[in-house]
Design a protein that fits this description.
The structure is a homodimer. Chain A is mainly beta. Helix content of chain A is 9%, strand content 48%. Chain A has one domain: Hypothetical Protein Pfu-838710-001. Chain A has an eight-stranded antiparallel barrel with strand order 1-5-4-3-2-6-7-8. In chain A, a hairpin with a 2-residue loop joins strand 3 and strand 4. The relative contact order of chain A is 0.27. Chains A, B: This is CYTH domain-containing protein.
């Protein structure tokens, strides 16, 4: 239940020539507190409730618990969420033995593109695609929960 | 998904001669905001995640969504909750055609006993047991989410 992820900015849209899956994601937060984030996500025709805890000291791993829920129920729960919905497309891109999740944001976060890679350990190496930019792992500003309150366009 | 409930204080412990079921409940909150309460509850050997919205204007009905979750997962989620766990016993008591849930609190809320009855409509009548005291429906002070932060013993 602890995830190790590293997050990066994305330099350009070259990843769009490489992705093998694309999903539309809308999500809101029942709590944006980084100590106990509660997220409602609709991903195409599926929906999830996800709870995340705080980052460990190195900022690389975070407690995460997720449960699939009914899409209609998720739509009702989204109405209860804090103001500031997140709307984005997620592209899955293979790079050697890893999969990058690349999120292109819309609405108030238009212009922001970030990529995440999940690792088996905090020291695991991975090949960096050419379009991968600056690392922003552990920077709360780039948490979706924070982007919902303080969106990219307002930076 | 909208519940209509009325809540009352309890005058004495006479209900303990009448109950047909008793459960121990421990619960914490991932959010205590009355607009979007998120509760983790362990009830004996079962566990639930519950989201509640705000009361309607009359204070009688409230959006409620509940999902059963794994008890071990609930224990992990409880560790993420805001400080202030709720510990109580719940007694189920039949009164004519209705069932009262009577909660006897322990710990920081020791001394508080409240009873709730669920109704089919806001105007439905019900028989009041003799041990039923003052109505406190819609008073946020008696929400478990608020009792976790501002417990009865501190009033």
């Amino acid at each position: 239940m602890v995830e190790i992820e590293r997050k990066f900015l994305v330099k350009n849209e070259d990843f769009k020539a490489e992705f093998y899956q694309k999903n539309r994601i809308t999500q809101g937060f029942l709590n944006t507190d980084p100590l106990r984030t509660v997220r409602i996500r609709i991903k195409d025709e599926t929906a999830f409730l996800t709870v995340k805890g705080k980052n460990n000291e190195a900022g690389l791993s975070r407690f995460e618990w997720e449960k699939e829920i009914d899409k209609t129920e998720a739509e009702a729960l989204l109405k209860l969420c804090e103001p500031g919905m997140i709307d984005k497309a997620r592209f899955l891109v293979k790079s050697a033995s890893h999969i990058f999740e690349v999120d292109e944001f819309y609405g108030e976060n238009e212009g922001l593109i970030v990529a995440e890679v999940e690792l088996a350990s905090e020291t695991e190496n991975f090949e960096k695609p050419k379009w991968l930019g600056q690392e922003v792992t552990g920077d709360p500003k780039y948490y979706n929960s924070q982007l919902s309150k303080n969106p990219y366009k307002s930076w």
